[in-house]
Design goal:
The chain is an all-alpha fold and 277 residues long. Helices cover 66% and strands 0% of the residues. It folds into two domains: 185 residues, no CATH class; 91 residues. It is flat and about 55 Å long.
């Protein structure tokens, strides 16, 4: 990253394009399941290997280029592979085509790493990319809950999260998109305690309390009171005094853009003929 970008991360054009690519990938993931299901019926178990082969073709040249700058961290690579294997094992055996989610969200996490790279680095970047990947998986499942031929599943969200964590760990271990230069780096410990206690933690709790009961509410309109914790968390975060660092302000805005729209899905379940499944 050059000095101009380090001093003004908003000028990182590649990061902006990475956000756009992440949005397109998520839209593709939501609509690609019928195609992968048909492919699985034609090729059997071999179909599940295709996305991982594609992931390897993407990672290998990037990793070899990164190796020339800095050796790989094999502990992160092994841990990332273990997360991917765990995600494959956790997939519903009745729907083997869903194993594709592990590779999909690993790729998404790699793109999110580059999107977040102007502000974060190291473990902050790795965990943030995995978190945003998990939130993307939650959007994926909630959209599926409104589609006639699909359904919402907490297990699938966990698989998506493991895939995102695997991809982010592999990116960390292979030194891909290592993150911000020292002049631009943001550190979680630099956030004021009030931002954690009165903003981020209530928002995270609101997301969990929204998603957790949805499987038991399938087949009917989702009660609107379930939105209260999420909306309260968003309001508390917005009520915090503006942070002096523009990088943190931008990241917290991105977090709100990922979480606040989750409130739309229960609202849509009250619009005929939509039914949450």
């Amino acid at each position: 990253m050059n000095r101009a970008v380090a001093n003004n991360p908003g000028r990182d054009v590649v990061a902006g394009l990475s956000w756009a690519l992440a949005a397109m990938l998520l839209a593709f993931f939501i609509n690609a399941f019928p195609a992968w299901s048909a492919l699985s019926q034609q090729l059997g178990k071999q179909a599940a290997l295709l996305p991982f082969g594609l992931l390897g073709l993407i990672l290998l040249p990037l990793a070899l280029l990164a190796w020339r700058r800095r050796p790989w961290d094999w502990r992160c690579i092994v841990t990332g592979i273990a997360c991917a294997v765990l995600g494959l094992l956790a997939t519903d055996p009745a729907f083997p085509a869903k194993r594709i989610h592990v590779a999909e969200y690993a790729v998404l996490a790699l793109v999110l790493r580059r999107a977040l790279a102007p502000w974060l680095k190291g473990w902050s970047l790795t965990l943030a990319a995995a978190l945003f990947g998990l939130l993307a998986g939650l959007h994926d499942e909630m959209v599926q809950g409104l589609l006639p031929s699909r359904s919402f599943g907490l297990r699938d969200i966990g698989v998506d999260g493991l895939g995102a964590l695997a991809g982010s760990l592999l990116g960390h271990g292979l030194r891909l998109a290592p993150g911000a230069a020292s002049a631009a780096v943001l550190r979680w410990r630099d956030l004021p305690p009030a931002s954690w206690a009165l903003g981020l933690l209530p928002l995270g709790l609101g997301v969990v309390l929204l998603a957790w009961p949805l499987e038991r509410l399938a087949g009917s309109a989702i009660p609107l009171w379930i939105l209260a914790p999420l909306l309260a968390g968003c309001a508390l975060l917005l009520a915090q005094p503006p942070l002096p660092d523009p990088g943190w302000r931008r990241l917290l805005l991105i977090l709100l853009l990922f979480t606040a729209p989750l409130a739309l899905y229960p609202l849509l379940s009250h619009v005929p003929p939509l039914v949450f499944r």
